[in-house]
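Changelog-adjacent note: as of this version, every example in the card shows the full chain rather than a window. The one below runs 167 residues end to end.
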Amino acid sequence: DGADVAMVRVEVVDVAGVLVTQDNGAFAEVTVRVLSGAGRVLAVHSGGPADIHPAGSATTQAYHGLVRALIRSTEDSATSARHRRLLHHITLDAGRGPAASAVRDPALEDLASEGPPAPIVVEATAKGLPPATLEISVTRDLAQLPLKVAAASMQRRERSVDEVAYI
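Full-length structure tokens:
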């Protein structure tokens, strides 16, 4: 409904796929961004006690090879057109200047007749390391939320890991 959040785990791994926890790579600057799909980076953090990156930054220093990113959906794909029209009239900044719609949905049309929504594609990069991408599944079927969407994302991840392993 434009308010869902996915927590993404980013790991710095060596060529064997083992988590790097102690050398310089374990503390690499990691940047997370949305390449495509209706999503945005809400926050990135490593859990490191000395993390000095500002809130809302898409870059942080890994802490023992780990970073967490929160990715928020930016489009209402699951509710009726009538519901989306009503949400479009709700403003986030009521009384504080120009209004911003609560949910981005420029077409405000019934999406049930369209095919499945595109996944949110997220990329993590760090200097000297190959980029890593992840697809977050999106659905228009409320009966599939949230566990079936998570399961579909895990199946997609397992397929991509298998493909990498056999290249």
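Structural remarks: The chain has a mean pLDDT of 76.
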